[in-house]
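Example for tutorial group B:
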């Protein structure tokens, strides 16, 4: 039931894309003084040891955060993302990689808060230990999709919902779309970010068809594809569905994606895409 362990993949190229976009969205929320809430539906443990057994087995981080670690020509969202990671590590040493809840927490102001959900008991316990008694963070052990029903809309009426499931179940794409729609129906003015792996073109096309069949509006799709999506059981790219993206986000992404492609695929990446799936 709880077979997925993100520790094997922590810091890979998909994490870099996902977490850079997360930073960009949170920085947009920070432009207004009023408080906001972040709901992370699949938070996992929150912090990963890149020298640990899981990360060392595949060493996927070397083609992800490892390619950015020493760079200094960083666009603003990437600079903030790297600064957060470097704050967790010894100077010039990359060992600890933060998951989405740790990244989000680093960008909260005193008036903001984070709700982190993780259903795996072991991962939940590690997440809870990592935050201690932080009053700005609420941690819950339950199904992330149920959390959308339990915690939306937030009292702040402003914020971000990150839906980042492991996609280990056959119908996870359908569940993710249903969860996104469920949250949006409860809180239509919220900002939503649904991450998805780009595996095959068929899966990607079905996801888009399911999204278009919903009542969702203002849906922007962001993708970085490093390998042609033609080989099964391989992570070929990283995608994010944004609902109600903040003002100026599209222009920022148009400038950011080519840089990420060059940084993560220096030998020549496949493609990147930015399109309004539903205007």
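The residue assignment follows.
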């Amino acid at each position: 039931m709880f077979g997925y362990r993100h520790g094997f993949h922590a810091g890979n190229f998909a994490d870099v894309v996902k977490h850079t976009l997360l930073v960009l969205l949170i920085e947009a929320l920070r432009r207004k003084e009023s408080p906001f809430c972040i709901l992370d539906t699949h938070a996992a443990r929150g912090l990963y040891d890149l020298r640990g057994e899981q990360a060392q087995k595949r060493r996927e981080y070397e083609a992800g955060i490892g390619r950015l670690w020493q760079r200094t020509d960083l666009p603003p969202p990437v600079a903030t993302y790297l600064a957060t990671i470097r704050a967790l590590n010894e100077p010039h040493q990359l060992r600890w990689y933060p998951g989405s809840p740790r990244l989000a927490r680093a960008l909260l102001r005193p008036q903001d808060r984070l709700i982190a959900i993780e259903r795996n008991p072991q991962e939940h316990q590690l997440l809870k230990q990592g935050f201690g008694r932080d009053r700005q963070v609420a941690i819950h052990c339950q199904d992330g999709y149920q959390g959308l029903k339990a915690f939306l809309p937030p009292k702040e009426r402003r914020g971000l919902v990150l839906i980042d499931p492991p996609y280990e179940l056959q119908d996870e794409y359908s569940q993710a779309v249903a969860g996104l729609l469920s949250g949006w129906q409860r809180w239509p003015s919220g900002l939503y970010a649904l991450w998805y792996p780009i595996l095959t073109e068929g899966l990607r096309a079905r996801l888009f068809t399911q999204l278009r069949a919903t009542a969702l509006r203002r849906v922007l799709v962001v993708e970085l594809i490093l390998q042609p999506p033609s080989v099964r059981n391989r992570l070929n790219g990283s995608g994010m569905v944004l609902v109600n993206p903040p003002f100026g986000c599209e222009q920022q992404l148009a400038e950011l994606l080519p840089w990420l492609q060059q940084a993560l695929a220096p030998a020549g990446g496949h493609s990147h895409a930015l399109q309004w799936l539903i205007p």
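The chain is about 40% helix and 20% strand. Compare this with the pattern of hydrophobic and polar residues in the output above.
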